[in-house]
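Worked example 2:
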Amino acid sequence: MGAAGSRPCTLVVCRGCCCGNPRKYPDADHAWQLERLQAGADASGGRFTVRTTDCLGPCDQANVIVVQPSAAGRRAGGQVTWIGFAMDDTCTEELLDWAAAGGPGVAEPPAALELQFVRPPREARARARR
């Protein structure tokens, strides 16, 4: 199998107009969260990666993190999962644990994290159907 066949779970961290904005959410340590996620990925031995992107869309549910399944997770039926309101330390640690365990399709998400699952914006749903 090629590189795509071994692609790990990926956490896509929104850092657009609202997510990661200390002026909008001054009580959240956005820099720490991103550093913690990246450190977790570095320590995972390649089990998952982290990348940032501009605005993902559902600004009323900031901070938003999208969990993309690994290649194995996709083969097992794992779906892209959108997490909203991802600002506290507990959520960050649960994301790290889930991604390190394999993410969607491979491992069950923590029950508390499931409460933060949100629907993707309409445009993302349309792209996923193509």
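The helical segments are 30-43, 71-75, 89-100, 111-114, 122-129. Strands lie at 9-14, 48-53, 65-68, 81-83, 117-118.
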